[in-house]
Design goal:
The complex is a heterodimer of chains A (360) and B (226).
Chain A (H helix, E strand, L loop, with lengths): L4 E8 L4 E8 L3 E6 L6 H9 L6 E6 L2 E5 L4 E2 L7 E4 L11 H10 L7 H11 L14 H14 L4 E5 L7 H17 L3 E6 L2 H7 L2 E6 L2 E7 H7 L11 E12 L4 E5 L4 E5 L8 E7 L3 E4 L10 E12 L5 E8 L2 E8 H6 L7 E6 L3 E2 L2
Helix pairs in contact in A: 2-4, 3-4, 4-5
Chain B lengths: L3 H34 L5 H13 L2 H12 L4 H8 L9 H27 L2 H8 L4 H12 L1 H16 L3 H7 L9 H10 L3 H27 L1 H4 L2
Helix pairs in contact in B: 1-5, 1-8, 2-5, 3-9, 5-8, 5-9, 6-7, 8-11, 10-11
The chains are: A alpha+beta (360), B mainly alpha (226).
Chain lengths: 360, 226
Amino acid sequence: MADINQIRLKLPRAQFDVDVDLHLPGKGITVLFGASGSGKTSILRCVAGLERAVSGFVRIGDAVWQDDERGLFVPTWRRLLGYVFQEASLFEHLDVQRNLEYGLRRTATSADRNTLDEAVDLLGIRALLKRRPQALSGGERQRVAIARALVTEPRLLLLDEPLASLDLHRRREIMPWLERLRDQLAIPMLYVTHSMDELSRLADEVVVLDKGQAVAAGPISEVLAQGDLPALADEEAGTVIQGVVQECNSRWHLARVQLSAGCVLVRDIGLVPGNRVRLRILARDVSLTLDQPTRSSIQNHLPGVVDAVLADSHPAQALVRVRCSGDTLISRVTWKSVEELQIQPGLAMWAQVKSVAVIA
Amino acid sequence: MLDHHAWQAVWLTLELATLTTVLLLLVATPLAWWLSQTRSRWRAPISAVVTLPLVLPPTVLGFYLLVLMGPQGPLGQLTLALGWGTLSFTFTGLLIGSIIFSLPFAVQPIQHAFESIGARPLEAAATLRASPLDAFFSVALPLARPGLLTAAILSFAHTVGEFGVVLMIGGNIPGKTRVVSTQIYGHVEAMEYAQAHWLAGGMVAFSFVVLLCLSLLKRNGASVMR
């Protein structure tokens, strides 16, 4: 299925050339991740046909939108896509209901009122239908914009930093809705961001961009575990691990989560036993010991084997990649520790995890 | 008070201004749209030509139109060949002259309105399956409504107030081409100051009301969007 959606684009920019060859899975969120000006938005605009790549091939499902070898370029309005801009870009002269109906009335397929109702419920905006865009908060506007894009039953949903223009509070408010989209929609989504938080919470797959080139691509846990990507090796360096909630302890307000390497205790934020959760473990919260820690305030320790020792952004520090059964942790240590403990690939160690964030 | 001739002039003026405004909006809207969207090298010269009536003395414009519409002019020869006679000293000729004379007053507000909308709403429309023509009518035009209103009011008022072009190509034929401004001129020539006062005072009141409407319109810009 991986080859069904293919995006191959070349376009020259002032500083560098964008040159990518992406393969999207049939569903789920693929995040285009990179610093500002790495070409993410240009790629998205080219996929939508809002800009034209110098040479390109874009195929989504059985529809080819651009194929310059055949001189084919389908205009944006004939592409079955949904696009969510950084600013909601609602039509200010129409109320929310009419905004949603705008695309519906222009959709030739079987899309009907049910599609609109589903989108309204999926984004929780039923109470806003009679309001005008000017009367909505930033978060509400963006939810309406996403619903408006979904009403046309797109084959591909493009999201260009949909949270970037919102403050932290609004971002937290809208994130659960995006997670719902990821888990419930049967279409691929291409999501542009430079936020590590959004990447680790939302991505199934990630493509890391640097100066217009894809420097890494693959499932989120694998790409983050590489540890040697400059774009990912800042304060936020870390990994994302999937686990299953085992039990919740009401006395300590902790929940036990089963990973493939063992169990960890996390703060209970209303977790439900049996549910899958996504954990984010930052490199700076992981320390390494040669012996199993017994008398430590840190509750979580996992046995593992050193996989690689990598340079970090500061010359005093190293990133140590540790494989714990199927999961990977990254630990930020000093080069001094690396030498004193003789940390090298193949060494069996214990990883102490001071803090685990449950992100979904 | 106003006599029969004065009322005739008032009605003719309103008829001319209304027709000019309607036709001008039909001409100016696509022109303003093109000017706001194009990156053609013809944009600057065409924009300058559209603005020309703003700076030219009306007599210059009127003179060239007269020559153009006259029996020796290319437009005159065309209308003669079609059996319509010449347009100079007719209401149609006056209408054409008014449209050209007020063109910048219609094009500029509409063009500014289109430019201030920006590309984003039209891009959003395209991602929602609207063809470019569809997006123009369903998004660009409604969002440009304040600009269209301003253009209509300015065109109407400017046509009511024109004098030079009218005199040059329309002459001063009662019931045919004599509008309020030329009627006032006639009264003054004949030393009929009382009649001139009624018409001139009416023009002052009318112009004041128009400008008042415009400024209220700008202040309530947001509610005009509705």
